[in-house]
Amino acid sequence: MGFERVWSTTGVVALTGALLLTSAPIASADQVRDAQWPLTVYGAEKVWKTSQGAGVTVAVVDTGVDSRQLDLTGQVLQGRDFTGGGDPHKDTSGHGTGMASLIAGHGHGVGNSAGVMGLAPKAKILPVKVSYKDTAGWSDGIRYAVDQGASVINLSFGDDNSYPGSKAAKAIAYAQEHNVVVVAATGNDSGTVSYPAALPGVVAVSAVDQSLTFWSSSNTGNVTVAAPGVQTPQADPNSRSGYVVADGTSGSSAYVSAIVALLRSKYPDLTAGQIINRLVKSASFLNNTGKTAPDKELGYGIARPGSALTMDIPKGPKEGPLAQASPSTSTESGSASGDESTSQAAKKKSKSSSGGILLIAGIAGAVIVIGILFAVIRSRRNRGNGGPGPGGGAPPYGTGYPPQPPTGYQQPYPNTPPNQGHPTPPGQAPQQPNPYAQQPPYQGQ
């Protein structure tokens, strides 16, 4: 089902499964722009001086995207319809168009001053039209998006059938293996993080309101980051004015997908995992005091595009902070690319180490036997000439190998509770100073 509560700009509308609410209508596209508080909080004008998402394709796996919407003209690629309808540009729900507008809308009118402006206005949108209830369909849609060159995939919906080992989980693992960042909404029923957001390696996004406070309807648990998701204006081709104002982690997910697009445009040489590393390391709890990362509501904090683009953050390992620590999580559960070969190498190393230990044990055993024989002979000789009796014997035989220092991605933040949040991959150097130490007044700075 769609993850939003929606108000029409001229009346009340609802998505599938949405809770009906009322709100003051927005009478004009200019008012829509004025109401886009996330752009103000993010300091979007300053962010766009660094990156606008040019050269990046974001796949919106959703209800379709209306390419005729004024704020999206020229931004929407051909795409594909996996519902059997044949037209990915026909959006009968309006949800997919709304997500696309938050990601790559460019506004319209004089100086593009009216309508919705997305956070990555020069990114391209690949519409992948699916039915939320058709797990097989949207799973195929993810693979299609990967094959079409999308480097970011936005999933603003939940599906209980996308559990680990499912076709959907394998499709997401396919995306991750092909260096694609997958972003998903955590859900809106105050429960635990929904699938597919709960799958390994997926950037799971919760929502905050205008005060940057956690939105109480967001699902909690294994959250990666949070983003604006309350009273967010967005395009909707099915409303009378063409716009709605919505609550939900759907919008939060779209905003984080836009941030990822900004990062992929500025840092094209970074892997998907390293992009996520920048996203996580630059997040902040801002005015949410008393929280430690990873927090069950905000994850590693509120995503900050300006900081993510400009902070001095080491690349980190290719797998990034969300990769699976154990090789037992196969590609079926979304482990990072190369885990299988790594596992095979580990097995070979284990066999080699075992052989080495057996060899050492054999040699040591032989030495001990020779030593005993020598001691017996010497003892007999000593007894014959009045020398001392048997000595202290050989030292006890151990493993032959001292314990190895633990490897792994060092905990990025102090006071992080053990075994919580995302497991961390090997190879990361010691962390830089805690990015939470400074609390800027705006996320975008």
Q: What's this, in brief?
A:
It is built from 10 helices and 12 strands.
Give a verbal description of the structure.
- This protein is an alpha/beta fold.
- 29% of the residues lie in helices and 12% in strands.
- The chain has ten helices and twelve strands.
- A hairpin with a 7-residue loop joins strand 11 and strand 12.
- Helix 5 runs parallel beside helix 6.
- The C terminus is likely disordered.
What is the secondary structure topology, with strand pairs?
Layout: E1 5-8, H1 29-34, H2 37-42, H3 44-47, E2 57-62, E3 80-81, H4 95-104, E4 106-108, E5 114-117, E6 124-129, H5 135-147, E7 152-155, H6 167-177, E8 181-185, E9 203-208, E10 225-228, E11 232-235, E12 243-247, H7 249-266, H8 272-281, H9 305-310, H10 339-385
Parallel strand pairs: 2-6, 2-7, 3-6, 7-8, 8-9, 9-10
Antiparallel strand pairs: 1-12, 4-5, 11-12
Count the domains.
1
CATH superfamily grouping: Peptidase S8/S53 domain
What helical percentage do the residues reach? 25-40%
The major beta sheet can be summarized as: 7 strands, parallel
What are the defining features of this structure?
445 residues, alpha/beta, Rossmann fold, 29% helix, disordered C terminus
